[in-house]
Amino acid sequence: MTFDTDGLVIKAQNTGEQDRLVTLLTRKYGVIRAFANGARNPKNRNASATGMLCYADFTITKTAKGICIIKESTAKDVFFSLRSDIIRLSLAQYFAELASELAPREEEADEFLSLLLNAVYLVSDSKKPLGLIKAATELRLLSLSGYMPSLVGCAACGTFETPEMRFCPMTGKLYCSDCVPQEASVPVPASVVHAMRHICLTDPGKMFSFRLSDDNLLLLVDLSERYLHAMTGKRFATLQFYKTMTR
Predict the structure, then answer these.
(1) In this structure, are 123 and 147 located in the same domain?
(2) Which is it for strands 173-175 and 164-168: parallel, antiparallel or unpaired?
């Protein structure tokens, strides 16, 4: 079986003398692993397209034993500007690790790939705060994966909004100022609630288009990260590295 798809390299491992084993987030088949024979040789036709965080068109053959082998590839974007900024590169690598954890395996993943490409592009070339890009990418990836927080209204009485609400990072539930949740919660101003709703519910092309004050952005970053940890139960090594770079 041979198939064509575009995809982003979200993990690259050396194997053999000159080969690579890459993990791809593909539009048509979700997360797949594939061998790129000889790709560590700079003269190999698959060398440039199979590096970490390269976006490319791939022709892949799947053997009778289920092993995927990249036969041809054409790089579309290699995000060169990331290579000269360790902070931005580490954040993009964190997004790649998140996608590897949350994106579907061997099934259509168009929204996941589009989100990740937009996030990596913004990290590499935009002037938006990195915290904004990080929090928005985390919450949207969780939402696509079935972990969307409950933000429509108060989980107890249904009230849509009060000037200050409370968010529970362990459950993703929102409460109005009149209802006291049993679980641990954080006071959240309406502007942050608006931002969270925007990230999770708006059109994908507009999800990064919002602004917050510095203090409220820090709060959003904290809440999104705590909620991510609660839903996945994981500590991501790439996130820890990114955080050491930004201290």
Answers:
(1) yes
(2) antiparallel
**94 lies in the same domain as 55:** no
Report the distance separating Cα 11 and Cα 182, nearest Å: 41
- Write the CB contacts of 72 (distance below 8 Å, at least 6 apart in sequence): 45, 46, 58, 59
Residues 6+ apart with CB under 8 A from 240: none
pLDDT in the model for residue 42: 87
pLDDT of residue 180: 81
pLDDT digits (tens, 9 = 90+) for 155-208: 999 999 999 999 999 999 999 999 988 889 999 999 999 999 999 999 999 999
Cα separation, 213 vs 209, in Å, equals 14
pLDDT tens, position by position, 112-147? 999 999 999 999 988 899 999 999 999 999 999 999
Question: Are residues 171 and 50 part of one domain?
Answer: no
User: How many residues comprise the chain?
Assistant: 247
8-40 exposure pattern, b = at least 16 Cβ within 10 A, e = fewer? bbbbbeeeeeebbbbbbbbbbbbbbebbbbbbb
Q: Average per-residue pLDDT in the chain? A: 95
The domain tally of the chain equals 2
Pairing of strands 30-36, 55-62: unpaired
CA 13 to each of CA 47, 92, 189: distance values in angstroms, whole numbers, following the listed order:
13, 17, 44
Portion of the chain with pLDDT greater than 70, in percent: 100
CA dihedral 200, 117, 60, 52 (to 10 degrees): -120
Cα torsion through 107, 55, 68, 100, rounded to 10: -50
